[in-house]
């Protein structure tokens, strides 16, 4: 039997998951932007 209403705990957890996913997405975009900016200078990036 599937309940008609969603429990408050699940609603809050979903909101936190969206917030965490958004923060992770922003972090990935920031790292990507920094990488592109470093490559745009024409310098060679070496991994050690």
From TrEMBL:
<keyword id="KW-0812">Transmembrane</keyword>
<keyword id="KW-1133">Transmembrane helix</keyword>
<feature type="transmembrane region" description="Helical">
    <location>
        <begin position="20"/>
        <end position="40"/>
    </location>
</feature>
<keyword id="KW-0472">Membrane</keyword>
<protein>
    <recommendedName>
        <fullName>Cytochrome C oxidase assembly protein</fullName>
    </recommendedName>
</protein>
């Amino acid at each position: 039997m599937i309940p008609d209403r969603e429990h408050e705990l699940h609603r809050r957890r979903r909101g936190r998951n969206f917030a965490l996913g958004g923060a992770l997405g922003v972090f990935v975009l920031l790292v990507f932007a920094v990488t592109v900016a470093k490559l745009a200078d024409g310098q060679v990036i070496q991994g050690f």
